[in-house]
Each structure stands twice: as structure tokens, then as C-alpha cells.
Amino acid sequence: MVYLDNNATTPLDPRVADRMILFIKEHFGNPSSLYPLGQQVKGLMNEAREQVAIALGARRQEIIFTGSGTEADNLAILGMMEARPEKREFITSSIEHPAVLKTACYLENHNYLVHYLPVDQYGLIDLNFLNSVISPETALVSVMLANNEIGTIQPLEEVTKIAHRQGVPVHTDAVQAFGKIEVNVDRLGIDLLSLSAHKVYGPKGVGALYVRKGTDIKPFIHGGHQEFGLRPGTENTAGIVGFGEAARILMNQGRKDRERIEKLAGRLKAGLENSIKEIRFNGHPEKRIQSTLNYAFPGLAAGAILLALAVREIYVSTGSACSEGSGDVSPVLLAIGLNPELAASALRLSLGRFNTEQDIDRALIEVPEIINGLRENSNQ
Ligand SMILES: Cc1ncc(COP(=O)(O)O)c(C=O)c1O
Q1: What CA–CA distance (Å, rounded) separates 289 from 178?
Q2: Which CATH number characterizes residue 298's domain?
Q3: Is residue 105 annotated as part of the catalytic site, yes or no?
Q4: Which listed residue (322, 334, 364, 374) is catalytic?
Q5: Using a 6 Å cutoff on CB, does residue 97 contact ligand 1?
Q6: What span, in angstroms and rounded, lies between the C-alpha atoms of 193 and 262?
Q7: 175 lines ligand 1 (CB under 6 A)
């Protein structure tokens, strides 16, 4: 198998799996219990909190574990709105993940005014537009750090400068950026930041929200006092411990991994562009996650390419896992100016820690063969 869909999810790192199995076997205590069985688990959870905090340049008390990246995004947006009931405006970009875009729709349906920042042909947001719509009525700005489909990296430092001048807090969905570029909360100047463990070789069903100390935020689900009262419910203890281990591994070998993965991605990119005639690269030439390659193949249907590759056990994606299967063309590709037909021909190949030179060798044989074959068939 050649797995080239690491933006959808990553394989669990065997070291994370080992850590989680050991933990599950030894620790069943509830971290809220005051006796040692519970307090040991609480201690291990706090170690994991520390690992995630260190990876972001944050403090342990600023990390709230959630049930997913989606939930972290919802907590950031709904929790900030809840804490500022007098402010009725929200600003986000037009190419956010559904976890943010659908939450924005929800706000619109509840009498909020939402401003969607337009993007250019590379997917970069319009900072002038942000300057023109931000006001004392704005409760929050939410702009993703890196796009899941095309990898474009947004100028978050500029966004936080503009917003903070107006006293408006900023959230970023860093689910795709974390582990692929350096993410430091102080350098970004960010107030809230979402993560998801399964994008960094950790388990599924666990995310985190960084909340800068002093930020006024309220829970959007109600219950016990867990996670500083912001995410009630008995914690996914094994998932959290696994997330901590995944963050620790990132700190140890993230930079080395990135260099290797970017080299592989560069070779794949050059090879595909050399061997396939009509191929259109989607995304920013430089300001992007190097391991994400998004291409449109004019005249072809992405679904047909995906299935033909899957038969040969090469796994790629036609868009984000969430919109895949919904039959819609990617709103991200439409927003950067592709027409619906071209957008429907686009594939995303995303690399990760466990890809090898042999994977790229095979992809460079099979992908052009399938694309060129499908084109010949359609010309007959
Ligand atoms: C940019 C972005 N945000 C949020 C999410 C959602 O994360 P999760 O799958 O943990 O809910 C994803 C997952 O695809 C993503 O790519």
C-alpha cells in the first residue's frame, strides 16, 4: 500500500500505540477521583498536557483537551460568542474547514453577522477586507493557519496585529499546520488555537484547544468541572496520553521528519509535473505546507482517478475527508477561482512520516499511467 492521504488522517505511531496500550492496561481510574488510582491518571494527563503545551510554546494550564479538532473549533467560536453576548459579529475566511464554516452558518442562523474574508488565486486571505470589516462589534476573528486541501499558509501574525489593534481576539484552526510547520502561540500572537491528535500520528477522537491565559471563554456543553470547566465529561484518558506522546515525538524528531518529507514531496511534485501533460497545481507556490500537493487534471473526474489508484492500493483524496462523499465540489477550489468542472477533477496527495522513497517511486509510475490511460480512454 502507498498511503498518500496524510491530511485526512495519519497512521498511529507504534510508539504512541505502545504507550496507550500500557496505559489502558494499568490505569482505569477516573482522574476526578481523589484517591491515588484517580490522581495517578490525572498526573499522566497533566504530563500529556505539558507535552502539547511545550510543542506550542504555551503553558500547561492553557491546554484544554477536547473530543476532536472539530470540537476544539466549536468550543473556540461558540465559547467566545457566549462570553461576549453583546457583540454580534464574527469574521472568518471563505476557505475554512467545515468545522469552522458550519459553525459560522450556525451563528448566521442565530442572528449573527458573519464576514467571510475572500481569498486570492493561491488561497491567501484579503487583509484589506479584514481591515475594512473589523469593528468594535466583532466578537472574534477565526482564520485557519494552513488549509487542509491546498496547504496555503495564512499570514496569521498580520491577522492578530490587525485584530488586536481593535481589541478583538483571534482563533486559528492549526489542525493541519501543527507538525508540518513551526507553530508557536506567542510568535503568532494568537488567543485560541485548535489541534487534533490524529493528524500528528496520535489517536482519533482527541483534540485540544489552546486558550491564552486571561481569555474570557465559556463552555458550550454543560456538566462537571473537567478541563477547567470548559469541556465537561469524563476525559478520554488513553487518547490524551496518546496525544501527549505524539507531541513528545514531534518535539524530538519533527524537524528531521519535515526535511525528509519535504524532499519526498518535492520529488513527487517534479515527477508528476514532468510526466503528465495537462496538470494544474492548486495552492501557493511558496507559502504552503510542502507535503500537500493538490492538482487538477482537466477533462477527468477525480473520483475515477481515485478509484483506479485505490485498486492498485495507492490512496489519495479528492478533498477534505469531511466533504468527500457528499457529492459537492470543493468550496476551497471554487474560492480560489477554479470552475466547478476543473474543481471536480482535483486530487490531493499528502505525505507523512511513514512514506518512503519506494512509495514515491511507485506513485511516479502508477499515477501518470492511470491519468494518461484515462485520458486515452476518454479520447477514444
Ligand atoms: C483544518 C482542519 N480543521 C479541523 C479538522 C477536524 O479535525 P477532527 O477530525 O479531529 O474533528 C480537520 C480534519 O480534517 C482539518 O483538516
Answers
A1: 10
A2: 3.90.1150.10
A3: no
A4: 322
A5: yes
A6: 25
A7: yes
Instruction: Give pLDDT tens digits along the chain (380 positions).
Output: 999 999 999 999 999 999 999 999 999 999 999 999 999 999 999 999 999 999 999 999 999 999 999 999 999 999 999 999 999 999 999 999 999 999 999 999 999 999 999 999 999 999 999 999 999 999 999 999 999 999 999 999 999 999 999 999 999 999 999 999 999 999 999 999 999 999 999 999 999 999 999 999 999 999 999 999 999 999 999 999 999 999 999 999 999 999 999 999 999 999 999 999 999 999 999 999 999 999 999 999 999 999 999 999 999 999 644 444 445 789 999 999 999 999 999 999 999 999 999 999 999 999 999 999 999 887 76
Measured distance CA(76)–CA(42) in Å, rounded: 24
Residue nearest to atom 14 of ligand 1 (CA): 8
In a domain, 110, yes or no: yes
Residues 6+ apart with CB under 8 A from 202: 12, 13, 16, 239, 242, 243, 245, 246, 247
Q: Let me know whether 212 and 266 are in one domain.
A: no
**What is the extent of the structural domain holding 198?**
14-249
Question: Which residue is closest in CA terms to ligand 1's atom 8?
Answer: 69
Model pTM? 0.97
Cα-to-centroid distance, 48 and ligand 1 (Å): 20
The length of the chain in residues reads 380
Sequence-separated (6 or more) residues with CB below 8 Å from residue 326: none
Quick check: CB of 103 below 6 Å from ligand 1? no
Domain assignment present for residue 379? The answer is no
Domain boundary among 194, 221, 249: 249
- Give a yes or no: residue 380 inside a domain: no
Our answer on whether the CB atom of 69 is closer than 6 Å to any ligand 1 atom is: yes
Query: At residue 134, what are phi and psi to the nearest 5 degrees?
Result: -70, 140
94: Cβ below 6 Å to ligand 1?
no
Ligand 1 mean position to 335 CA, how many Å? 19
